[in-house]
Design a protein that fits this description.
Helix content is 44%, strand content 15%. It has 255 residues and is α/β, with parallel strands linked by helices. It has a single domain, classed as 3-Layer(aba) Sandwich (Rossmann fold), CATH 3.40.50. Helix 1 packs across helix 8 and helix 3 packs parallel to helix 4. The chain is globular. The model has no long low-confidence stretch (mean pLDDT 93).
Length: 255
């Protein structure tokens, strides 16, 4: 299936990795459905995608609410006629260990980061299976394959995303749907800025960059390129893959 015959829904499309992915795909002529709760920021992304020649619609809603997700999927199919790919990029990060996390913080973190991709899969997979070459890509984190001190809910939710995608690869691979997950470390996004502000204890950006073998954070467009590849026919045999996009931070002990 060529990019011109591709219809992709992106959650978390208003900023960060989701925004970068939308811009990346727009330049390739992909039909897009943008989904985010920040309607004003999403309108800017919609305009930027349209200026690059993409057929694009926006659907404002909460990635953790079943009704909003169902509506976004329905709008995508109605507008573009079909759905051939999904990018689950909506996410939040909240600080706290198991002794300090409130019920509310635990629940909202899992609702957005884990229930969100599940709901997208629930509503999108029946449509994806109607296409001979379809793909579902979720965004997890390096904290989805190892612990992250002080971020119990975030790490637990991102581990869950990895497990969810692996199960989807097994359940729906025989039907032609490829499911993969990208696990970035720090990326230059508003979320990363927020994490750095609340980290405290002298752990500034330079501290974290020194722990990356490549010596820097990822750019959003680099993550978008990886997602673009996993959606494409060039990744036609990638299924159940956990794509570590972390500059080498999980390769082993460094420094």
């Amino acid at each position: 299936m060529s990019k011109a015959q591709t219809s992709i829904l992106i959650s978390g499309a208003a900023s960060g990795i989701g925004r970068a992915t939308a811009i990346c795909l727009a330049k390739e002529g992909v039909a897009l459905t943008l989904f985010d709760r920040n309607a004003s920021a999403m309108a800017e992304v919609e305009s930027a995608c349209r200026n690059r020649g993409a057929a694009v619609i926006a659907s404002a809603g909460d990635a953790s609410l079943d009704t909003d997700v169902a509506a976004a999927v329905s709008r995508a199919v109605k507008a573009h006629g079909f759905l051939s790919g999904v990018v689950a990029a909506a996410g939040i990060a909240r600080k706290g260990d198991v002794t300090t996390l409130t019920d509310e913080t635990w629940e909202i973190t899992l609702a957005v980061n884990l229930t969100g991709p599940f709901l997208l899969a629930r509503h999108a997979v029946p449509h994806l299976l109607r296409n001979p070459s379809s793909a579902f890509v979720a965004v997890s984190s390096d904290s989805g394959v190892r612990g992250s001190r002080g971020y119990a809910a975030y790490s637990a939710s991102k581990h869950g995303v990895v497990g969810l995608i692996r199960c989807m690869a097994l359940d729906h691979g025989p039907q032609g749907l490829r499911s993969n997950v990208v696990c970035p470390s720090f990326v230059d996004t508003p979320m990363a800025d927020g994490l750095l502000k609340e980290s405290g204890g002298g752990y500034d950006r330079a501290f974290y960059e020194r722990r990356v073998p490549l010596g820097r954070f990822a750019r959003p467009d680099e993550v978008a390129d990886a997602i673009d590849h996993l959606l494409s026919p060039q990744a036609g045999y990638a299924n159940g893959m956990v794509y570590m996009l972390d500059g080498g931070t999980t390769a082993g002990t460094f420094g």
